[in-house]
Structure formats: structure tokens, C-alpha cells
Amino acid sequence: MPAHAVTAGLWRHPQWRRRHWASWGLVTLAAVLLVSPLAVVARGQEAAQVSWLERPGTRALYSLGLWVTGGGRVLLLVLVAAVVVGTARLLVRDHRNAAALTVPWMCLPFVLAWSVSQVHPVYHPRYILYSVCALALLGGVALDTVVGRLPVGRPWFAVAAAVTVLAVLALVTLPAQLAERRPRSRPDDLRSLAAALRRHSHPGDAVLYLPADRQAFATAYADAFARLNTTALQDHETNLQPGSFRSALAAESRIWLVQILPHDHRYRSAASPRDLAILKNDKGLRATSSRRFGSIRLTLYIRRTAGS
To answer: Shortest CA distance to 109 belongs to which of 95, 119, 123?
Structure first.
């Protein structure tokens, strides 16, 4: 929205008058009012959703460029050159409105998110990827500038050159595009976690989620948890009191611990490390297997039998 405000302020139009500013302001106000209920609800979920975000450093812009280009430094240099050429052409050719649209769109989301994050972290490259649309527009202007300098008498050659450049760029960035869509691109692998539960769990096995409020996240593949007892050791997404938890633990023979490790390895609630300590110190239980699925650890605890 701030980028849109800058675009509106710089836009040149013979009929751009105060009533147009008033119209823009009313539409913006309506959008803010409509989204405000969502903002209020989301604010209350911030601790559970984005508490892992960290303050971005001075290399954040460089890292964003590498991510956009698929990790190639050469492509990053090409991108920078394209942005410079595209912006310069829009300004030199007096296409000020096009520059007023693309440049704020490209710059302001990153600048504002990075600046706010120095006080309250809200920045992640994924959250501002809509700025890539502006980069694409400027890249298109740069490509048009380059092919426009080719022999005028051969328009087909200019078209072929532009298509070739786009095809090469698509092929070069294809591995990064495919990698971004694979499970390993995420910090967790819920699909493999669900597959392991389907293979090795028994009907009625108890499940303990740590922290408890991440249960909805862990059960994205709900069918893998359907035959398990998800309320034996927790009241849905609420931890039991220590005494009740010990009693419930003593009644179970097989327990799956789904441990979603916090980014800083510090649980926000004291109940999570407390329950984990009670589980590990229970002499009647032993951990038989433990696997990592990205940031999630899945451990099976089995009740000891006589002689085991």
C-alpha cells in the first residue's frame, strides 16, 4: 500500500485532480477497514506463526537477489543490469508513469519490511516476492531496449533473439524452480512424517505434541493420525496439569512424541519442557526409535515389559 501511494503521488495525468486523490484515499480506507478484522485475529497468532523470524542483516538484499535468480551470481548481475537499463530507459524516454509504477513496487516492500524488522522482525523473502512482478516488467523493458538495437531491417531476428534470451533464462533457472517445489525446500517434511506414522503406528497409540499448540500444523496429513489417540496426553491443544499428565502417561504402552523444535530451541510455554522431562524420566518407558523430518523430531516410546 505505501508503494501504491508513491505511485499515485508520482502519476502524471492531465485530469489528475484532488478528487482523484480523494477517490484513492477512500478506496484505501475501505481496504484497510475490510482487512482490519483479519489483522486483529492474525496479531493474536503472531507468537505461534512467525516468532522464528530474525532481524535481517546487511546482506538481506543480496540474499533476496540470489533467491530470485535461483542462486546464481551471474544471473544476479544480469538482473541488476536489467533493472538499471530498464529504469534508465523509462526515465530517459519520459515514460514516467511506468517508472512510477515499477520502481516503488520493486523497492518499497523490501525497504519497509527490512526497516521494521530491525525493531520487530517481520521480514522473510517469501513475504515480498510479489515485488518480482516489478522486476519482470523492468527486465522486459531492458530486453526490449537491447533487441531494439538489432538490425532494423530484420524484425524477425529481434523477435527470435528475445525468445532465445527468455528460453535460456528459463532453462538456467529451472533447477531452482524445481528445487523450490520439493519437500526439502521447507524446514520440515510433513509428508514423510505422515508416511512413517502410517507404516509404524498401531491403532490407539497415544500422541504427544510439543508444543501442544502446534498440533494443527503437525496434522496437515490428518489421515496418518486418524487411528491414533490424540487426546490421551493433551486436552486437544492444551497441556495437562503435571499430576494428570503422569497418570495419563502411566496408562499408555506406546507413545509417539511429535516434537516441533522452536527456531531458538526455547519453548514459549514452560509446560512443554516440563512434559518432555516427565516423559524422558519415566523409568517405565524407553525410546525405541527417533527420526528427524526437518525441524520435527518423531520419537516412539514403548512401555517396558518384565525383563526389558
So the answer is: 123
**Sequential pLDDT tens for the chain (308 residues):** 899 989 888 888 766 667 777 888 899 999 999 999 999 998 887 776 777 788 999 999 999 988 888 877 888 898 899 999 999 999 887 788 899 999 999 999 999 999 999 999 999 998 998 999 999 999 999 988 888 777 666 777 878 888 888 898 888 888 888 887 887 777 788 888 999 999 999 999 999 988 887 787 778 888 898 889 988 888 877 888 888 989 998 899 999 999 887 666 667 777 888 888 988 888 889 999 899 988 889 999 998 876 55
Say whether 94 sits in a helix, a strand or coil. Answer: coil
Under 8 Å CB-to-CB from 223, ≥6 apart: which residues?
A: 194, 198
Q: CA 74 to CA 118: how far, in whole Å?
A: 30
Cα–Cα dist 222/227, whole Å: 10
E strands, 107-189, are: none
Cα–Cα distance measured from residue 190 to residue 197, given in angstroms and rounded to the nearest whole number: 11
* DSSP state at residue 253: S
| Phi, then psi, of 215 in degrees rounded to 5 | -60, -45
Cell 519497509 found at: 112
Strands 254-260 and 206-210, by their bridges, are parallel
Let me know: does 131 contact 106? Beta carbons within 8 Å. Answer: yes
- pTM of this prediction? 0.71
